[in-house]
Amino acid sequence: MVEIGSLFIGIMSGTSLDGVDTVLVDFGSSTPVLLQTFFCAYDDQLREQLLLLHQPGYDELNRAAILSNQLSCLYAQATAGLLENAGIAPQQIVAIGCHGQTVRHCPEVEKNYTIQLVNGALLAELTQITVVADFRSRDIAAGGQGAPLVPAFHDAVFKHPDCHRVIVNIGGIANITSLDPSHSIIGFDCGPGNLLMDAWCLRHTGKTYDNNGQWAATGRIIPVLLEALLADYFFLRQPPKSTGRDLFNVQWLEKKLMGNETPEDVQATLLQLTAITIARSIQEYCQTAEEVYVCGGGAHNTLLLDRLIDVIPGKAVALTDQLGVAVDWVEAFAFAWLAQQTMLRKTGSLAAVTGAKGDRILGAIYPA
Questions:
Q1: Rounded to an integer, what distance in angstroms lies between the CA atom of residue 312 and that of residue 113?
Q2: Would the pLDDT of 110 be above 90?
């Protein structure tokens, strides 16, 4: 039995490209405790450069390596700010679990890879803390999707012994975890969460996101467009499945447009797309669920939450704050937990979720 300390850091920078979520977690008791949080926003230049890397381009290997180093420096700054605010020395931390920034996610058999930018060696050097990174590759090597990885954490922290719960994470991509006490865990990506709404909002308003869905509320849902979006093969596929900007991007959206739509009507339709694809996933795979808990950046979109309540009748919809973890920190918390699993030499993935040959110990370790 491996014996380690109890303090871990989780770092998450997700598909929304808004910045870096960093958390300090104490796993010293039966219920892990979130001790401190810290956020570093991406500047416009970094966000733009990361977006460009989602598509093939000139000198992309060099650009990716440089951005990995830049991101690792930002991760180190976030770690320093987190520890300073907590009054904790780096030597007290067992490890950092760093997801890195996804720029490609291609788990299909013909490609079979995923790329999350982070220089784990540099991050370990800058922080003088052991780093666990590259969590997704081992699952893909075992025949899995490499995502989503958070359902195992949801099971460990949010599961109720009697009540069937569903955890809905609405980041750039939306995914669900079904925590049914009487059945095995189900988890998969539903489709776009915020990323299409954010991209469309930026193009037409100059704002990086639609605050509370206020702009979408000025538009009307376009039924023909909604049906065209829902006709994509991804929504028809059975789980396990995962996705990202490789599929859902502005170019994908533009192919569905007639050209005479008003921008606000498109935004209203994109919000409905997110709500409908989440609702359909719950209705098909989580019929007996009693409670639905939402986390991620989309949990701040009040219009989206109201729409979810409308399209998921008969189920109580709330935020993960009610389960003890605020909506903004669930994924970073998950990667602190995954780092602990790695350091304990315990599996962190669920084959039932990803479709891999079996559960696997995840991540590459960069010692301090």
A1: 35
A2: no
